[in-house]
Design brief:
5-stranded mixed beta sheet; 8 helices; alpha/beta
Length: 242
Amino acid sequence: MKYGIISDIHSNILAFEKALKEIEKENVDKIICLGDTVGIGPYPNECVKKLISIKDKIIAVRGNHEERCIFGCPDYIHDGKQKLTEEEKKREAWSRNQLDEESMNFIKNLLPLTYIEDGKYKISIMHFPIKEDGNLKEFKFCFEKDELLDYFGEYNSDIFLFGHTHISLVSRENNKWYINPGSLGLTGFRNYGTYGILNITNDKIYYLEHYFDYDYKEVINQMKSINYPDVDNMISIFFGNK
């Protein structure tokens, strides 16, 4: 089967819609969304509605920003090492308040972890590896080879799909694949979003990274026009101060 792999849309409907148009050209069988559909950007409800509109073709899990919409904000994140600021809590509250009942019910029904099988391969689908207490494991931008086994070994799969770091990763270690498509919606100092195409055919695995342009300036203008909480800081961090 052929899969479009997306992650970390972060309430960016313009990037999301552009990516879906590109993915449609690939004639994929399913689209796998690795969480953080909401959070940080200005279009949370629109992004969840888009997921709902393609729910028959989507396999989705929830990320930490969906968790905050559902359960509220924790005082500390990143394995208890970083205190969540009041501005961050305001942003999460703003996102949560944009979601209508249908959208909220949809994200409540998403699991943090799921599995599928394709031929002889078992695929783990998650936002990021999860500890026994249900919280995410300690945040890392990059992984050394031995760290991949430490973070993902317990899931006993052949392919691991995850996001959260906003940085793409494709690694094959000990006949196992570790794939992060990077952030679709938060482009940082890049002017483009990213997604991946995973193709499993004749017991062979193929993966390609894809890049696409979109009107990121319109997203920035929208954030400013709605007086998004801590907007200048958010634009600087997540859109490269464009």
